[in-house]
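Example with several molecule types.
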Amino acid sequence: MKRKISLLVPVLLLTVWICTGCWDRKEIVDVAFVMITTLDEGQTPGFYRVHAHIAEPKRIGGPGQSSSGQKQKEPVTDLVTEARNVDEARSNMEQMLSRDIVSSHRRVFLIGEALARRGIKDLLDHISRSPMNRISTLLVVAENTKAEKLIDQQVPLENFGVELFRELSFRKTHLPTSLKDYFIASTTPGQQPITASFATTKENEIVLSGIAIFRDNRLVGFVKGKEAVVLTGILGGKTGGSITIHISQVKGDLSIRLDRLKVQRKVAISNGEPKFTFQVKAFGRILDNRTNLDLSNPEIIRKLNKAFADEMEGTFQSLFHRLQKDFRTDSYGLGAMIYKKYPGYWKRIEKDWPEMYPDQTLKWQVSAKITGVGSIGAPLFIPENEVKK
Amino acid sequence: MKTLSTWQLYGLLLLFLLGTSVVFGIASTAKQDAWITAFISTFLGAALLWLYSKLYETHADKNWSGLLMVSFGRFIGSILCVAYVFIFIYSAGRDLRDIGELTNTFLLPKTPIGITMALFQILVSYICYAGVERMGRLAELNVPIIFIIFLLEVILLVASGTVHLSLLTPVAEEWKPIIKAAIPGNLTVPFAEAFAFAAFWSKTMAPKGFRKAALLSCATAGLIFIILDILAISTIGPELFARSLFPLMTTFHLVNFADFIQNIDPFIVTAFLIGVLFKITIFTYASCAMISDLWKVNVKSAVIPVSVIIFLFAFYMTESLISHLFTGHQWVTWVVFMPFYVILPMFALLIIKLKKMIGMGES
Amino acid sequence: MVQQSIRLSNWADLEQFTEELKRTLGSMPDLVFRSVGASLIVYISGLADQQRIEREIVDPLSANQETGSLFIKTPSVQMTDNYQQTVQAILSGMAAVAICGKDQVILANVAASPKRGVSDPQIESSILGPQEAFLEDLDTNIAMIRRITKSEKFRMKVWHFGSVAHTEARLLYFDQVAPDELVAEISKRLDSVHLEDILGSNYIAETIKDRPLSWFPTVQKTERPDVVSNALMKGRVAVIVNNTPIVLLFPFTFWNAFETVEDIYLSYSSATFLRWIRAFFILSALLLPSLYVAITTFHNEMLPTNLLLSIAASREASPFPALVEALIMESIFEAIREAIVRMPRILVQAVSVVGALVIGQAIVQAGIVSIPMIIVVSITGIASLMIPHYETTFAIRILRIILLLMAGGLGFFGIALGLFFTQVYLTGLRSAGMPYLTPVAPFVWKSLKNLIIRQPFERS
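Resulting structure tokens for the full complex:
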């Protein structure tokens, strides 16, 4: 009896194997990897225009094969389709390809500005529901252009254009622009989501142009330049922007590279009104001195610190001015601060918050510290008598 | 005949308790306070397990079927025994369905769920056929594996920089959802389910050792649950935690270490497979043990028919994952788990203690 | 043959004795009958040392013919009147001295059968340890072991098997160090062996080990005296069989297969480091091909995108599904491996060139198998060569192919199922009564510590 059973098991397994070999097997050569998907408004009103880049392994050539020196075209195939919703677009594309579409390696979802302004809530469910899609996909906005035009540009140094978007958003700035961040921000009471935005320069190159501000899943505007750097910093990302400061009575200015922003935020309720206090410590290094100040003098550094702090405070003020007055969107999450600390109070003011938000005043206590000046004190080319000590 | 050592029983219990929660998370309805629920239910679970061990102590040589007869008399006791046989089969079938659904969602979407579940149930019957002692050794083999996977998960997740403890706030703004999630929800799954051990505990260890192993494993499992919940909430936020069907899978989906270790869900599914394997095995064996005690047959001969019934249950139980999860959280908890895993054992203990007192009073 | 008594009262009996012998053994040219006065010396040349016979038997006998005293100088003698025993003795290389008038035959042990000198171990080599291996001669082997373990606790039990080959086997153990149950158990099993022809220790191994049909070895085979001595000192028992240099050791757990003898000759940190590397590679020897097939076919989300696209690029050229590629390469590798063992030494160099260049390079360039698959199979092959115990490699190889098939059908789930089935199977194996997976299951902390790290030797 034991003999018979122990014979039965391998026979069973064998039959199972023979029968099951065919269900879930997706050979790599039968699969198409989507690298990036872009969404724009379609030519037909109410339709979306979906554009997907599919990787072509053959043209990558695999290891050991050197590419010819010039700029080659990206090894991808384009697929364009128009459909009423994202899933329909997917099914259209399936019918245009010899291979099965696999979206688990799609890292970036690019949305054109026009579509983003119209509202993106109909797009978001598809990309989070299917288990193949990753919730860490980045959601970015193409500024001032149609998304599909943006990805047609040639990207320097990388095999695929999608790498540029990823590295810039993720590795370089740690902007919370992934789907997960978007969902967390939009479901946290008192916070609105943001994404990164990219644009093309005049020379047709892609650049990370700023941060896109969303309210109620609609794009309302962009924060750029210094304000964007600062917003990234206080949201927990990495900074690296260039801050220009100058001291009065001194000709010229200096550039500080902003290294770190340490933010301690406090919210208190007094007289039924929330009061926000931000204690910010900014750290930076001077890497470009266009004055003739001698930077090895601690006195001068102190003055520069003050100027640095003033500049930062000014930037914060203008950032929040823009967020509060121009966009009326709580992207940083002042409301969330109230919710997390005083949930009872938040329940009462929750409905009125959108009106209360633009009128909030924030107290800034900014201190700045210049942590380094590079490896020299005064600029090396200025004659001794002109150096300002 | 006591065939297990403390460590083996501890391993069996621990893997049983971890079971399905490694993927489903604990008390996701309590959102960011789920870990508090986990904390509370660990204590409640420990109390429950302590109660079970006290029940075992009353008659150290009898299994639950014997105890039922002693408490409720032969006639009602036998009927209850048969009921328990089916309860255990149902529990096993539920977990088998869990594994089928999970595999179907993440690993093998196109393979028919019947094949996956059938193969798994064959494995389960092989283990049941092997007996309690080998089950103990199997547990010993797998406990280090689970620990290693757990450690790796935690390290990779934290190293991916996706953990933000601020997502745990506001802490405990409302106590109602927390308590609601704990009783009966998280109490029964998984702690009350450990009652399945009652069907064959006389084969495992003496009551004192059983108690030690049970409480230790309860504490360990509780700790793991709390850590997993905290990790999950800090990574994907309270709302996603509550809305996702497999919250911990979604969490570990985000592991992105040095841009090269990504998408580690097969490892998470492996951890889940181990836990669920033990759960189904214990339930299957419990059912066979009850049958063997009732009808005086060898446990091994009951394995195959019971397995077939479990498979059929799992296959035809509900039409889809959704109704399966729904039944699990609402209906089953109140109708099945509470009465049979919590109330009846308490009742039985009471009756036995009363009988003892009366008996002592008489003599 | 009927047990006959020998009667040698007079010349006629001696003649009859000679005729009997000639009839039993045949009139073979190497069966020598030598008369010295009233005595007859029978031996087989080639098996018996003729010089010794001259020196120790013939000279004394011829010198003492007149005195009638019978003494021979051979140190080891037996007396018998049993015909069977005499025949066996002659066949074993002893000289039978039949003296007219005496009713017992003297069997003088002058055996000096051809044997080789002590040489290097063939299979289990070590860098820092002794370089001796067992020979085919039982006595020499026992002497080698005795030389290393000069313990008074050393005990042997003797068995003889087979009426044709009449092979001798001995059970070696240390009294009071080896558990009594173990010794009793193995003795019982040896008692029940009824084989006729025993040409090597494997015959005995197969008949006395637990679960002879299992792929996993439950007995250890070694050719090194230091391994045997070490085992005996730890409380294990050894079975040594004549005419084979392989000694059997009981009990044998799963984890013994991953220990090399080098472990005790290296320092603590090196040995532990090697142990971990070995464990890791053995695991990959088992799992790598199936993981590769599972991941590239079923779960390609797991790989980083760039790696995946590289693999995809290489796979574009190949017409076969990943599973078939894996099976092709596995079988080619196994073929090469076996061929290298069997072929004459001189050809090894040439064939390895053929194997590497032609098969590896040409297959890839012809586009039959993709490069990542070659890498996977090569790493697997090298990893499987790391397994110290030769017999376990077969279990691992067979298991690997089964896991490969399951991975091809059901991906990760298949691998997990296969591994679980193996686990359950292993928990049920026993070797000489000891569960196969000790000390992990059942859990024995002390031995487990020595398994994970090679414990430093205690300083006094």
